[in-house]
Amino acid sequence: MLTLDILPEIEALMDKQGVNPQTKEHLLKCSRFHTFSAPGLLIGVYMTEYALELLKAQPDEILYAVSETHKCAPDALQIIAGCTVGNNRLRVIPIGRFAITINRKSWDPEVEGVRVFVDLNKLKQYPIINAWFTNDPSFDHHGNVMPLLDEIFIAGRKILSYEKVMVQTEIKKKWKSVTCTMCGETVPDYLAQGDLCISCAGTNYFRKISI
Ligand SMILES: [Zn+2]
User: Fold this and answer.
1) DSSP tally for the chain: helices H, then strands E
2) What region holds the Formylmethanofuran dehydrogenase subunit E domain (predicted)?
């Protein structure tokens, strides 16, 4: 397991492969946030850095991001690009592609952004990453883990490609508060179904138990 106990060992691998100090700092910071050095998270760090560079983003600039997977990549965007789930500048769309997009703020319906993705053609040069990424049965999740990280640090952004895209923006909706007549809690009107919250209207994610 790539727990934080072995972070010094992983850091030594970064040094061995000459990872630059800024990237190293991001890799370590993201690992701590994520609670372990997941391979996808490390690739996500390279993707986020690459997208920021292509966008010529300034430090502390307000940016918006999309992750096309819920796995790992969102955490690199949260830590490095400051696009978080809570500040509503990160959208996680469960498409399942290992890709991210970053764009600037805009009041227009569309805004130019940079989309970075793992390029399968480039991945062929890196057999261990390729086996892990494609979930190939030949990948040994125990024995191959450190060699996998080693190859990720060697590859860096060489397994990535990018494209410029127009991103559909999400216009902030004006809303009114609606009090649900069943549970008595309030929700924004655009999430209500009549005078009920969505949960009481039938899509509850929990059921109550008596205390
Ligand atoms: Zn309710």
Assistant:
1) 7, 9
2) 33-140
For ligand 1, the distance from its centroid to the CA atom of residue 93, given in whole angstroms, is 26
pTM over 0.90: yes
Question: What is the distance between the alpha carbons of residues 81 and 33, in angstroms, rounded to a whole number?
Answer: 14
Q: How far apart, in whole angstroms, are the C-alpha atoms of residue 15 and residue 177?
A: 54
Ramachandran angles phi, psi of 93, nearest 5°: -105, 115
* 188 C-alpha to ligand 1 centroid (Å): 12
User: Where along the chain do its domains lie?
Assistant: 4-168, 173-211
CATH code of 4-168, in short, is 3.30.1330.130
**Radius of gyration of the chain from its Cα atoms, rounded to whole angstroms:** 20
* 201 Cα to the center of ligand 1, angstroms: 7
* Structure tokens belonging to residue 87: 């500040």
3-state secondary structure of 62: coil
CA 91–ligand 1 middle distance (angstroms): 25
